From TrEMBL:
This is ABC transporter substrate-binding protein. Residues 1-23 form the signal peptide. Residues 63-323 form the Periplasmic binding protein domain. InterPro entries: Peripla_BP_I, SBP_2_dom. Gene3D superfamilies: 3.40.50.2300. Keywords: Signal. Residues 29-46 have a biased composition (Low complexity). Pfam families: Peripla_BP_4. It comes from Defluviitalea saccharophila. Belongs to the bacterial solute-binding protein 2 family. The lineage of its organism: Bacteria, Bacillati, Bacillota, Clostridia, Lachnospirales.
Length: 350
């Protein structure tokens, strides 16, 4: 049931309760004032029976969630967080759709959710563009859209809130690790594995990193290409980088750990030592990156929190309760390298 319909039903019920309550209230005010107060429990019980029945508690909140796919460990962790949070909450029903990395599948899923009259639509938009029409359809149907972990390039009026990270800051943090490692006056050749072309996580991580190194003339990005956020593609693209620039490469900056971990394999097969001959910085904070740091094959991971289930469910409940949400519900994150990463490894959840 959409929130709009629920609100109408709720209003009708409230009116009924008021009319009923008034009728009962008129009768009861004479009886309750005349009777000696019973025990608290009994009074409470009497008070309850005099009130109209509460709204039915079995009204589940239905969330339609269009997930991008399962391209990385981070993505899988996000899916698990959302499914687990919903499964554990008796007030929530989750309708889940896996788009297999295709925007057209996400658009189809959104239209299905609209037809089903869900209370809210959650979407991790695979790319930023192409959402205007279907978001307008959801708005016309009175169904709020909650963006998860990536942004959509639409007017703010077409979505309720964005729950996710500051990707520009993540890119900046990755660059800061490199600057702290080599020093501001060093000559540093960097190769960059970009995420999915058109995804806000890729666009902004690239921007944040580039902005942070622009004042250091010795820092040069000598190659930059998309590895589509996957290990396989990250390995393939790194093989090409090594073929063209092998011994010139000082640093690999990857928009996610999965691509960087694929690149670690390529670097080893090429005959260099990942983490030593080539310094490696990724984003996400997946457990395998922490393990690679502990193994001396990786240097730094900038955390990006995928555990958005609790924030999503809370946001939908707040919406249903008529609350106004912040336009951006930002995730708190950290940067891990060296002994700090090794110490955190046993506690990592994804
Ligand atoms: C970030 C998310 C990105 C991750 C990747 O919020 O969109 O997509 O960094 C994932 O691992 O593929």
């Amino acid at each position: 049931m959409s929130i709009k319909k629920f609100m109408k039903k709720g209003v009708a019920l409230a009116l009924a309760v008021m009319l009923l309550g008034t009728a009962v209230g008129c009768g009861s005010s004479s009886t309750t004032t005349s009777e000696a107060p019973a025990s608290t429990e009994q009074t409470t019980q009497e008070a309850k029976t005099e009130e109209a029945p509460a709204a039915p508690v079995d009204e589940k909140i239905v969330i339609g969630f269009s997930q991008i796919g399962a391209e990385s460990g981070w993505r899988t962790a996000e899916t698990e967080s959302i499914k687990k949070t919903c499964e554990e909450d008796p007030m929530i029903e989750l309708k889940f759709s896996d788009a297999q990395q295709k925007q057209e599948n996400q658009i189809k899923a959104i239209r299905t959710f609209i037809a089903q009259g869900v209370d809210a639509i959650a979407l991790a938009p695979v790319v930023e563009s192409g959402w205007e029409t279907v978001f307008t359809e959801a708005k016309d149907a009175g169904i709020p859209i909650i963006l998860l972990d990536r942004m959509a390039a639409v007017d703010e009026s077409l979505y309720t809130t964005f729950i996710g990270s500051d990707f520009i800051e993540e890119g900046r943090r990755a660059a800061q690790y490199v600057i702290d490692t080599f020093g501001p006056d060093a000559e540093v050749n960097i190769v960059e594995l970009q995420g999915t072309v058109g995804a806000s996580a890729a666009t902004d991580r690239q921007k944040g990193f580039a902005d942070a190194i622009k004042d250091y003339s010795g820092y040069k990005i000598i190659k930059s290409q998309s590895g589509d956020f996957t290990r396989a593609k990250g390995k393939e693209v790194m093989e090409a980088f090594l073929k063209s620039d092998g011994d010139k490469i000082d640093v690999l900056y990857a928009h996610n750990d999965d691509m960087a971990l694929g690149a670690v394999q390529a670097i080893e097969e090429y005959g260099l030592q990942p983490g030593k001959d080539i310094i490696i910085v990724g984003v996400d904070g997946v457990k395998d990156a922490f393990q690679a740091i502990a193994d001396g094959k990786y240097n730094c991971t900038v955390e990006c929190n995928p555990n958005l289930g609790p924030q999503l469910v809370q946001a939908v409940k707040d919406l249903k309760a008529g609350k106004t949400l912040e336009k951006w519900i930002k995730s708190d994150e950290d940067v891990y390298f060296g002994q700090k990463a090794i110490d955190a490894l046993p506690t990592r959840t994804y």
